[in-house]
Design goal:
Layout (H helix, E strand, L loop, with lengths): L15 H13 L4 H14 L4 H12 L11 H7 L1
Helix pairs in contact: 1-2
Amino acid sequence: METATVRKQTAFRLRADLLQKLKTAAQKENRSLNNYVESVLMDVVEYYPNDTTLAAMREANSKSDLKTLDANNFDEFIDSL
C-alpha cells in the first residue's frame, strides 16, 4: 500500500516572464503548472551530481588524454578493453 505524499501549500513571487515560460512549458508537456514546477525543482535538488560524478565531468571537459572513437571499428575498440 502506497503512502500519500504530504504537500504543503506555499506562495512564491516570480517574474511575470518566468511565470509565463513555466506555464508554456507545462502546457507543452500536458501537465499542470504545479506538477511541472514541482518536478523541475525535484530534478534540481534530487539529481545534482555527487563529487565523483562532478570530478569525472571536469576530467571529460578538460579533454585531457581523450581519443576519438571510430564507430566503424567499434568491435575492435571493445576487444581492446
